[in-house]
Amino acid sequence: MRPFNTVAAELRKATTLPAVWAGIAVALFGSAAITLINAFSTRAALDAGHPEARAFTSPFETAFAAMPLGTVGAVVIGVVIFSSEYTAHSVEVGGGRQITATLAAIPHRHTVLAAKATVTILLVVILAAITMPVTVGIARLVIGSAGAETVPLDDAVERCLGGAVYWALTGLIALAITVLTRSGIIPLIVLIVSNSLVSVSLLLTNLTPLAHWLPDMAGRRLFGGLHTVEGGLDALPGALVMTGWAILLLTIAAVVLRRRDA
Amino acid sequence: MIQIDGLSKRHGSRTVLSDVSFHALPGRVTGFLGPNGAGKSSTLRILLGLDRPTAGSALIGGRPYPSLRTPLRTVGSMLDGSGAHRSRTARGHLGWVARSNGIPKHRVGYVLEQVGLAGAARTRVGRFSLGMGQRLGLAAALLGEPEALVLDEPVNGLDPEGIRWIRTLLRGHTDAGGTVLLSSHLMSEVAAIADDLVVISGGQVVAAGPVAHVTAGYATLEDAFFGLTGGPGAGEER
């Protein structure tokens, strides 16, 4: 009864938090907007008879180019689900933080962390189940019959599932790191920049092949169809390595959360 | 009953609590009194399982707080105001708190009415005044109809009407056999509410017992407070 009540309470907390909805909006509307822009460019190139001007003309690939924004959404969800516990009120109204109320209600800290991880996975998977069909649908609608779909359906489904797993694992890693930092600012900046603008791990692969074992590099083949960077781990071993990172970081987070004063 | 036994807490080389022991009995309001920084909040945080003691134990009904399955049905507490995230509404905050302990939904509306916040149920907590935050914290404490109430500085930010209201509320709770432990740094306010006093200073209990017993020998309540806690004017009146 207690785990169920805790998950239900944490789900309610997450869905009544505006920052969680901001993360969902970035992932859903952001990737829809980027897909729209890319799809119109592809359509224009095709109509002009210059398909070689685009890296790909497949609607599915066009939609999948927007996947990093979903990763950003997963980061935001994972971070704010925990950092919101430590948002302090101003001193004039007591300076309290929600973590006090949370641990008074659910003193078993591992139950709290497990519930937050469950809610993170749940929200990210629902987000993926909406975002991916929507973006692929937009790309198909805009490009239409002009661009041939080169990605077979079973491939597309597999890559969507892989992408959802990548998002969920990223959300869990973001959650675990935020447990350690307590503030959301540093994990948000580092993880968003790394997942959207410059991948620190990708740069590190120039220095050492070991960087291919960092979580985001290890898991990147879950999206499939990536030919930009050679080397590194294949999809399945990469997914296992990324899962290993998530489990390791959550375990460290659980130990720290249990030992420290709230 | 709340039992604190030999509680010690150190942060590095700094001693926050040293060998703190006292009981809070059912049917009585126990006032936990001391100047700011004396160790009141540290004691209550350990009692509620938020901080870990270096030594000693804190039990509620013979059990440590973290071992309670649905703690809010046994102990209602308030530390540092409401503990509600500022972007949530009062009703939203109490909603998840109730859900976490399997407390029926109708209790949310009931306690909001009880603390006088029914009209602000859909207001975001970030727009609350200190007094409203205290009332919301009390609402959360009362949610699970607990036997014991543990309240840190509950009268902070309340107007005189609010203080009178909380006194009636707590009296009703102890008349029904409940236990109340409340902290304060204001002697006059605590003396008006409490049956028993525990006075703490510099992390040590310096006096404990019924109010009349603890304040005996001092001309005023204020003199007693400063006399016991070693503040300004200590030892002049005795």
**Approximately how much beta-strand content do the residues of chain A carry?**
under 5%
- Count helical runs of chain B: 8
Q: Do you know the CATH architecture of the largest domain in chain B?
A: 3-Layer(aba) Sandwich
Strand content of chain B: 25-35%
Which fold name corresponds to the CATH topology of the largest domain in chain B? Rossmann fold
Largest interface: pair, residues per side: A-B, 36 and 44 residues
Q: What is the CA–CA distance across the termini of chain A?
A: 25 Å
Q: Specify the CATH class of the largest domain in chain B.
A: Alpha Beta
Helix content of chain B: 25-40%
Question: What's the helix and strand layout?
Answer:
The complex is a heterodimer of chains A (262) and B (238).
Chain A: H1 2-15, H2 18-47, H3 59-64, H4 67-83, H5 98-105, H6 109-143, H7 153-181, H8 185-196, H9 200-204, H10 215-219, H11 235-259
Helix pairs in contact in A: 1-6, 2-4, 2-6, 4-6, 4-7, 4-8, 6-7, 7-8, 7-11
Chain B: E1 2-11, E2 14-24, E3 29-33, H1 40-47, E4 55-60, E5 75-78, H2 90-100, H3 106-114, H4 130-142, E6 148-152, H5 160-175, E7 179-184, H6 187-193, E8 196-201, E9 204-210, H7 211-215, H8 221-229
Parallel strand pairs in B: 3-7, 3-8, 5-6, 6-7
Antiparallel strand pairs in B: 1-2, 1-4, 8-9
Helix pairs in contact in B: 2-3, 3-4
Question: How is this structure best described in words?
Answer:
In chain A, 71% of the residues lie in helices and 0% in strands. Chain A has 262 residues and is mostly helical. In chain A, helix 2 (18-47) packs antiparallel against helix 4 (67-83) and helix 4 (67-83) packs parallel to helix 7. Chain A is globular and about 65 Å long. With 238 residues, chain B is an alpha/beta fold. Chain B has two domains: 2-74 and 147-229, P-loop containing nucleotide triphosphate hydrolases (Rossmann fold), CATH 3.40.50.300; 84-145, no CATH class. Chain B has a six-stranded mixed sheet, sandwiched between helices. A three-stranded antiparallel sheet of chain B has the order 2-1-4. In chain B, a hairpin with a 2-residue loop joins strand 8 (196-201) and strand 9. In chain B, helix 2 crosses helix 3 and helix 3 crosses helix 4 (130-142). Chain B is globular and about 50 Å long. The two termini of chain B are 33 Å apart. The relative contact order of chain B is 0.18. Residues 233-238 of chain B have low confidence and may be disordered. The interface between A and B is large, with 36 and 44 residues.
